[in-house]
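Quick one, tokens below. Sequence please?
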């Protein structure tokens, strides 16, 4: 399809043809999307098999073709014939009032609306060109406490921290674009992402940095489309970021949201702007995302944050005590680090609770007090399920040796036992990644583990005997699940 930039005269037939196209498109496109994208198109001219329509902007035309190309082709062919073509002309640029994008709720203490100055009229620029536009001023919405100085380094986050430092030196000009950080809750994804943003602002104060959650982006998009009818302003605003940090990208579910983010991502990446994304799962596990977005998430560096080891947990507790200006005996901190193993958030929460109890009761922080506080917060710990325990339980249950389970044998019984081991590891071990499970169970890749988990789930719903195998093993590994 060809894009024209010069209005044309009417020739009569164009209105009837476009109305017929609209009646067909109404049946093929969701009502909300039809209202957004097709109700604003005006037919201009019909010449032979070429229909010219007027759209609000060049971006509007590009978006139509990226999201609805097949639908448009089929509709035009049905109404006009095999040689049908569609051309676009654009509305002249007019004065526009200042745009406001609601900031939503988030971690940062400041949560103001974001304003962009309007631009002066003139010419007919593309949607991504803004003559006379003043420098954008945006509240980056970064929490000052989430800096590299307060981020304790360990094996669990070393790669992400190192990549973040490189990005902060040259945002948009490293191989780490986008940087995709994933891992379970409380492992520090938001801290790492915001630390990079803060460091970029320190190193490059002229750059425009913005932190937003996936849910906030989604709500802003819905408001821009359904309430304010300012989708183009919304897209144009995000395309002016130098560094865009989107936290919990897994919440960006919905075709409209993903189409908008796809275009924003493309524009920023092509213009060497930095993208930093976080998610509670790896890109391969974002099953409700379009493939074109998933492929872009993998363009740069994907790095997993894992559970902190004992030394890192203890170092984090000491660092937090120093920041709070309190002195707690090493034996108390060591007790906390040995009891709270899941993530940084629970560990930090336990420390703050302990300090609060000690302050209110005007007593010293002791191991005995820590035992009472931790007991109230996390209760009695159930024996931790590990990959080794899962493998041993499966081997004992099916009367296999560990070498046999981890071998490359394709015998049905061994394959099923291996798949069950992968499934149990995935469902019973918090924050255990597909890659880790695969490497420990037969040296498989994450795709094999994902397939194994899907296979086991399907068989459990159709095979009563197979379901009993899995249920028995769950009971062995986690007795409290009886």
């Amino acid at each position: 399809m060809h894009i024209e930039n010069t209005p044309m005269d009417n020739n009569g037939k164009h209105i009837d043809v476009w109305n017929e196209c609209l009646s067909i498109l109404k049946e093929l496109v969701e009502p909300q999307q039809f209202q957004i994208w097709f109700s604003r198109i005006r037919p201009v001219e019909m010449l032979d098999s070429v229909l010219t329509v007027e759209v609000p902007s060049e971006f509007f035309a590009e978006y139509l073709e990226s999201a609805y190309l097949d639908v448009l082709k089929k509709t035009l062919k049905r109404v006009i014939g095999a040689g049908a073509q569609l051309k676009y002309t654009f509305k002249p640029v007019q004065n526009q009032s200042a745009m406001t994008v609601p900031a939503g709720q988030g971690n940062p203490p400041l949560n103001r609306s974001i304003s962009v100055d309007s631009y002066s009229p003139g010419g007919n620029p593309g949607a991504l060109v803004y003559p006379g536009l003043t420098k954008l001023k945006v509240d980056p919405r970064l929490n000052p406490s989430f800096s590299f100085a307060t981020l304790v380094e360990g094996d669990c986050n070393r790669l992400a921290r190192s990549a973040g430092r490189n990005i902060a030196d040259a945002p948009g000009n490293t191989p780490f674009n986008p940087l995709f950080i994933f891992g379970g809750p409380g492992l520090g994804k938001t801290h790492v992402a915001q630390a990079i943003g803060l460091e970029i602002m320190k190193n490059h104060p002229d750059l425009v940095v913005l932190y937003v959650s996936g849910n906030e982006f989604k709500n802003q998009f819905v408001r821009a489309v359904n309430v304010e009818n300012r989708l183009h302003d919304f897209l144009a605003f995000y395309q002016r970021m130098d560094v865009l940090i989107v936290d919990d990208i897994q919440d960006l579910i919905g075709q409209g949201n993903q189409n908008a983010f796809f275009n924003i991502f493309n524009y920023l990446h092509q213009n060497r702007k930095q993208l930093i994304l976080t998610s509670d799962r790896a890109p391969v596990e974002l099953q409700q995302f379009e493939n074109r977005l998933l492929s872009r998430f993998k363009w740069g560096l994907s790095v997993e944050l894992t559970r902190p080891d004992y030394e890192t947990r203890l170092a984090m507790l000491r660092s937090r005590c120093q920041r709070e200006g309190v002195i707690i005996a090493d034996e108390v901190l060591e007790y906390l680090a040995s009891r709270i193993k899941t993530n940084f958030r629970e560990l930090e929460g336990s420390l703050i609770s302990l300090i609060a109890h000690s302050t209110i009761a005007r007593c010293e922080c002791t191991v005995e007090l820590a035992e009472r506080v931790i007991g109230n917060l996390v209760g009695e710990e159930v024996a931790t399920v590990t990959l080794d325990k899962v493998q041993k339980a499966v081997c004992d249950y099916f009367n296999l040796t560990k070498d046999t389970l981890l071998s490359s044998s394709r015998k049905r019984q061994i394959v099923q036992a291996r798949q069950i081991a992968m499934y149990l590891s995935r469902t019973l071990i918090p924050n255990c990644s597909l890659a880790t499970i695969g490497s420990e169970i037969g040296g498989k890749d994450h795709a094999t583990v994902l397939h194994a988990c899907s296979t086991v789930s399907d068989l459990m719903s159709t095979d009563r005997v197979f379901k009993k195998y899995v249920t028995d093993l769950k009971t062995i590994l986690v007795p409290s699940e009886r």
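Residues 157 and 305 are 5 Å apart (CA to CA). The chain has a mean pLDDT of 80.
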